[in-house]
């Protein structure tokens, strides 16, 4: 301990010291410029008003100006503490032995000293600034710091060398070059053909870069260090003060008061029982108890990892009033071992101590509510190597080490062999930390980086909120926030690779919610069956230690349940209760949530989602969930002077995790489609719903999990999506770029009149602008056989109070059409019935769809963009080209062996193969020996769509009418069949047209596949409504009328019936089969069946129906749009529809793609160089005019001149990229034309199709003035169309 000066008048009252420094083994652990310790008498409330005896208690106050605490590099703190403890214990034993010798009778006249604990009141720490840090390894800090410094200088010198090479090659202005190819540099003539002179110029650039690097190194302020590395190899590296710490904690205006708990040990035990139910149930005794009430005030608190851009945690205006108790479980007498402790040179004390691992640990029980005004938290996968270093620093500091300099075996060398492995860090947290910790923030900001670079400033996911509360208890974490907003940098990350521009305007939130809550339930399981019982050591009543202490507590099972909830603001209703109500004329506002009062401007959860946003989120999640291997496993790799520790043998966290449940509940919810271009047909597409619930479950299956059991991979076993009263609009009149319209959608509700309900559909029946579709209820379910039904049902029942069930209040006694359903149970056929067969079941109730050209283009554009976001990333064109060339070379190398194998094959090289291909599906394999019939049962069911009461409003633009198609129910099923067929000799001979066919002994087999898509519509009826009669009539729907009401007209005022309710059945089948040698062309079948259709149409109705079929349903779809995952640029002229026609492997197209890829990479490198120089450069451009007159201006120019030169190169590169893009477009067009010509020349049919139609009765009547003047009738009509053609 070193003190510069000490001031005191009475040491019992207080001491003031300056320049205090405390060191251990030559390493400084604490230093302070000024610190004062004072003792204040304990004050009472009535001590001045009456004669009260002064209390013996004293309050201690520690005041400091600047206190710095350091954990030196690789200093064994626990070993030092153990050595000091053993020495004190040995001295006590020696003094007791001396005392027994001096006073053998035991009559020592010593005064009894009162215990100081009773006179101890409270301790108060008042510190202006407190800094606690873990010292960084010097070589690590020095290398990191100088790497980034040298990288910047290398980038600058690389740019200068590039410009020098361009000047030498003559690609710049040649006005400064003589006819002999000579330049003037600093008054010296330089010949471009003189290699030595040019090499001197390059060396001048390198020298300038080194001088700049040297000057930057001299400007750094070196850290003083703790002194732990004053000698040896590490002493030669001096990191700067910014890089001296691995982890630092800084607090300002810190005021901490520790007060004794009234009631002593009894009150502490009661407190432990209150926060730990296991202690209450098991009546756990404690041997040692330490505790106090804590009052904390802090101006600011910052936790910084190294010198990363954002702190790990920072907060302002902290306040806390809580209690902390440290307790040690009482246990039985522990096994003892002998230990030798040396005192001085000649004395040795042999004493007993407890064997390692038999003493219960001291655990923390707390109740800490902490308040902050503003908090900021940041994290990224680039932080994980630092966390590994932090873990290693604590491992070294807490490791047991023998520090004896006399005899290395003087320590605890007689330790019994270790029978159990140590606990992993998550079990250590369950073992040591208990109680309740709550964090309150008035404002928060969360930053989760989207790159591996911890110094990233732009590309990140950012969450901002106003009030936030985070509560942690054993097994639970609850988070609630107000004005929750999530922002992503998808647009910035796209623009970073193609432009220097920065997105302008206020960023729109990706997710916005007035009220946000997150509930995480952590369920552990272990061998003991009681994961909450952390009292592992034997109790005193047991009498002997337990054979296994940690193994029964080691976790073998982890189940995580994440429940997200997004809600609107709480509003006051008429009955005085506060309920989450929302306002929307087209949403249910009375029946589901009670009567709502008149509310204006109510915010509700909103999501602004585009294809580029979705792709960015997938990339961000993939990076954080599965980062590069060396980042997450950083501690396992060999490092300099760090011994490879033996693996603990514990299961990793991803193996312990057995179940993961995920639920998002947004009530209500609005999703707006975000576009990159203004001409996107899907611009303004808006989804609104009363409730959205999305559920996911990942599981390893149902089994008993032990430490050594085999664990299946964690797979998705359940997925569910519930949308209550969804509606889709095309909002064209709202400015989508407006921040208010994007971030907060506000609507107004009307007061309810009488018993009328604000039912969905009232808005659409009067207004049709922008309407696309609506539904009462929409669900998606999928469950795998691997799922555990009991656990899944338990999780769903736990969240059942948040689930909105389907209520058939208006339809349970009647129908909305002109007839009643034959079976009322068909409405709910299969609803919420999920079978564990991996089939995706979709249920749609009350679907209303308005299908126009504009809506079709919007849906087509939206689906195309979203589907691209779900596609896996493709390799670059250069990688694809290299892979294809490698495969071709491998095939050429093995061509001789493959040729020999081909000659021994039955059909290889036979001309009858082409004949079989020409026969296609006309062979007897399809006609006579069909493997499937119309009554196929089973198969692999992929998805099923059940629709109840759908209505399709098809708009006819030319005929000024709408064709309304409605049904009572419908079902769409997609199945696939797979079988292996044994092919006989006569079948092959007939199929190949030859009789001299040699068949080997094994009977040949052929795989046969069939894909089947079936559509069943029940009670279908159609109406036609004109749109030029009453423009204000709006959309025409079949009204909802209860079956018990009076017989009223079931159709609207303008609806004209086309055909009566009937059944319709569509089936599309695709057969595909063959072997590698015998290829059979696929057969496509399309079947339509309607046994009881009766249609009556006028010429006007027939015109509308024909126009709908020709110009809407069978009209050609719009061309695919350009890639929605790339930022639009002016030179983008590659058409994607041509790319779909051209197959892979066209040499010219691949070379053109590689050329374009090279230009894009060069552009990215140029943009990175410009940002690097502009970010670290100066702003002086005074020498620009002088530099323009110098041919070698790049050698001594400022950074601003280099940036200007790079920008000129960027413009030229963009022109070159445009030429490459144009060349690619021409190559695609040429390849597409060649592809079409090859198809025309190829006479072999590419596919075959069979269309069958069966109608029992067809009646055609022609009317004039309501009277029939011509009629035709056909009974039992069957039509079969079978064709083989090249394209379909």
Automatic annotation (TrEMBL):
Report biased composition (Polar residues) as residue ranges. 893-913
**All copies of domain FMP27/BLTP2/Hobbit GFWDK motif-containing RBG unit, residue ranges:** 307-457
Annotated stretches, region: Disordered: 871-917
Q: Which InterPro entries match?
A: FMP27/BLTP2/Hobbit_GFWDK_RBG, Hobbit
Q: Record's PANTHER family?
A: ANTIGEN MLAA-22-RELATED, BRIDGE-LIKE LIPID TRANSFER PROTEIN FAMILY MEMBER 2
| Protein name, entry field | FMP27/BLTP2/Hobbit GFWDK motif-containing RBG unit domain-containing protein
């Amino acid at each position: 301990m070193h003190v510069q000066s000490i001031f005191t008048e009475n040491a019992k009252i207080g001491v003031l010291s300056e320049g205090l420094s405390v060191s251990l083994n030559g390493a400084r652990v604490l230093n302070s410029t000024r610190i004062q310790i004072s003792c204040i008498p304990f004050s009472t409330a009535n001590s001045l008003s009456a004669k009260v005896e002064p209390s013996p208690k004293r309050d201690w106050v520690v005041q400091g100006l600047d206190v710095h605490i350091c954990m030196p590099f690789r200093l064994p703190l626990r070993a030092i503490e153990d050595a000091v403890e053993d020495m004190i214990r040995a001295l006590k034993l020696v003094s007791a032995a001396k005392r027994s010798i001096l006073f053998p009778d035991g009559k020592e006249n010593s005064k009894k000293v009162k215990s100081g604990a009773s006179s101890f009141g409270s301790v108060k720490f008042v510190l202006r600034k407190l800094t606690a840090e873990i010292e960084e390894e010097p070589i690590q800090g020095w290398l990191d710091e100088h790497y980034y410094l040298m990288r910047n200088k290398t980038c600058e010198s690389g740019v200068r060398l590039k410009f020098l090479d361009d000047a030498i090659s003559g690609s710049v202005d040649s006005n400064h070059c003589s006819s002999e190819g000579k330049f003037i540099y600093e008054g010296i003539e330089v010949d471009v053909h003189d290699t030595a002179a040019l090499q001197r110029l390059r060396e001048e650039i390198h020298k300038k870069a080194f001088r700049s690097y040297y000057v930057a190194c001299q400007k750094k302020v070196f850290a003083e260090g703790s002194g732990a590395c004053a000698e040896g190899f590490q002493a030669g590296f001096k990191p700067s003060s910014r890089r001296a710490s691995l982890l630092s904690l800084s607090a300002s205006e810190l005021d901490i008061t520790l007060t004794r708990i009234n009631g002593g040990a009894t009150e502490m035990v009661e407190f432990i029982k209150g926060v730990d139910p296991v202690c209450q149930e098991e009546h756990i005794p404690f041997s040692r108890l330490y505790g106090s009430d804590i009052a904390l005030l802090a101006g600011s608190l910052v936790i910084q990892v190294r010198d990363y851009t954002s702190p790990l945690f920072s907060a302002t205006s902290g306040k806390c009033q809580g209690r902390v108790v440290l307790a040690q479980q009482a246990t039985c007498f522990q096994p003892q071992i002998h230990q030798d402790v040396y005192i001085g040179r000649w004395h040795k004390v042999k004493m007993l101590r407890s064997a390692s691992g038999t003493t219960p640990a001291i655990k923390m029980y707390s109740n800490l509510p902490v308040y902050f005004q503003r908090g900021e938290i940041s994290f990224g996968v680039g932080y994980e190597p630092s966390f590994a270093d932090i873990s290693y620093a604590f491992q070294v500091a807490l490791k047991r080490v023998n520090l004896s300099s006399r005899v290395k075996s003087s320590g605890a060398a007689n330790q019994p062999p270790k029978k159990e492995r140590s606990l992993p860090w998550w079990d250590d947290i369950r073992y040591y930390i208990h109680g309740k910790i709550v964090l309150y923030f008035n404002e928060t900001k969360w930053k989760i980086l989207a790159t591996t670079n911890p110094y990233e400033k732009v590309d990140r996911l950012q969450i901002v909120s106003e009030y936030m509360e985070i509560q942690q208890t054993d097994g639970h974490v609850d988070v609630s926030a107000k004005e929750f907003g999530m922002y992503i940098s998808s647009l910035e990350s796209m623009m970073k690779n193609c432009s220097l521009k920065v997105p302008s305007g206020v960023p729109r939130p990706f997710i916005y919610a007035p009220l946000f809550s997150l509930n995480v339930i952590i369920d552990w399981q272990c061998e003991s069956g009681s994961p909450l019982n952390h009292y592992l050591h034997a109790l005193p009543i047991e009498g002997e230690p337990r054979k296994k202490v940690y193994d029964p507590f080691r976790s073998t099972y982890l189940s995580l349940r994440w429940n997200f909830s997004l809600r609107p603001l709480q509003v006051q209703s008429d009955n005085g209760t506060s309920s989450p109500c929302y306002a929307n004329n087209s949403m249910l506002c009375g029946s589901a949530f009670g009567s709502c009062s008149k509310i204006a401007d109510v915010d509700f959860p909103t999501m602004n989602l585009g294809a580029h946003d979705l792709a960015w989120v997938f990339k961000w999640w993939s990076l954080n969930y599965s980062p590069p291997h060396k980042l997450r496993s950083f501690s396992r790799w060999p490092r300099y002077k760090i011994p490879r520790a033996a693996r603990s043998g514990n299961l990793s966290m991803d193996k312990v995790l057995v179940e993961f449940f995920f639920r998002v509940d947004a009530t209500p919810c609005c999703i707006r489609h975000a576009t990159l271009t203004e001409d996107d047909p899907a611009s303004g597409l808006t989804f609104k719903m009363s409730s959205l619930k999305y559920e996911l479950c990942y599981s390893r299956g149902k089994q008993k999990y032990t430490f050594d059991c085999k664990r299946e991979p964690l797979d998705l076993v359940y997925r569910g999506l519930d949308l209550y009263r969804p509606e889709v609009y095309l909002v064209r009149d709202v400015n989508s770029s407006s921040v208010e319209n994007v971030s907060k959608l506000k609507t107004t509700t009307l007061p309810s009149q009488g018993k009328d309900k604000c039912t969905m559909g009232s808005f659409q029946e009067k207004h049709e602008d922008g309407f696309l579709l609506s539904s009462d209820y929409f669900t998606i379910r999928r469950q795998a056989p691997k799922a555990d039904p009991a656990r899944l049902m338990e999780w769903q029942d736990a969240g059942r109070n948040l689930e909105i069930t389907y209520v058939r209040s208006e339809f349970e006694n009647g129908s909305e059409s002109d007839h009643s359903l034959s079976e009322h149970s068909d409405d709910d056929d299969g609803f919420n019935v999920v079978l564990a067969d991996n089939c995706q079941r979709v249920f749609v109730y009350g679907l209303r769809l308005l299908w126009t050209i504009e809506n079709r283009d919007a849906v087509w554009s939206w689906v195309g963009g979203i589907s691209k976001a779900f596609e896996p990333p493709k390799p670059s064109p250069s990688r694809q080209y290299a892979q294809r060339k490698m495969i071709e070379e491998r095939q050429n190398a093995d061509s001789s062996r493959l040729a020999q194998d081909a000659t021994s094959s039955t059909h290889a090289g036979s001309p009858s193969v082409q004949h079989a291909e020409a026969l296609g599906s006309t062979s007897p394999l399809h006609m006579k020996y069909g493997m499937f019939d119309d009554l196929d049962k089973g198969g692999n069911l992929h998805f099923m769509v059940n629709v109840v009461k759908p209505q399709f409003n098809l708009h006819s633009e030319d005929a000024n009418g709408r064709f309304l198609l409605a049904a009572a129910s419908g079902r769409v099923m997609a199945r696939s069949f797979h079988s292996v067929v044994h092919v006989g000799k006569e079948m092959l001979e007939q199929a190949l047209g030859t009789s001299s066919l040699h068949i080997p002994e094994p009977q040949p087999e052929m795989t046969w596949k069939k894909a089947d898509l079936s559509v069943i519509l029940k009670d279908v009826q159609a109406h036609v409504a004109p749109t030029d009669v009453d423009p204000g009539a709006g959309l025409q729907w079949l009204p909802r009328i209860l079956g018990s009401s009076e017989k009223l007209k079931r159709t609207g005022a303008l609806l004209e019936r086309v055909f009566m309710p009937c059944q319709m059945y569509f089936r599309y089948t695709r057969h595909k089969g063959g072997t590698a040698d015998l290829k059979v062309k696929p057969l496509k079948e399309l079947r339509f069946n309607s046994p009881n259709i009766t249609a009556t149409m006028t010429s006007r109705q027939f015109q509308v129906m024909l126009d709908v079929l020709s110009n809407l349903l069978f009209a050609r779809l719009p061309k695919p749009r350009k890639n929605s995952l790339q930022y639009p640029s002016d030179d983008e002229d590659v058409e994607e529809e041509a790319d779909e026609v051209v197959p892979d492997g066209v040499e010219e197209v691949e070379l053109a793609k590689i050329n374009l890829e090279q230009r894009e990479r060069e552009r990215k490198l140029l943009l990175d160089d410009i940002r690097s120089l502009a970010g670290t450069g100066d702003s002086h451009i005074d020498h620009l005019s002088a530099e323009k007159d110098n041919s070698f201006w790049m050698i001594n120019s400022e950074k601003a001149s280099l940036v200007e030169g790079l920008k000129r190169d960027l413009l030229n590169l963009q022109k070159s990229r445009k030429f490459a893009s144009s060349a690619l477009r021409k190559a695609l067009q040429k390849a597409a034309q060649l592809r079409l010509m090859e198809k025309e020349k190829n006479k072999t049919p590419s596919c075959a199709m069979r269309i069958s139609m069966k109608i029992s009765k067809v009646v055609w009547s022609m009317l004039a003035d309501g009277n029939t003047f011509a009629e035709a009738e056909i009974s039992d009509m069957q039509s079969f169309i079978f064709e083989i053609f090249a394209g379909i």
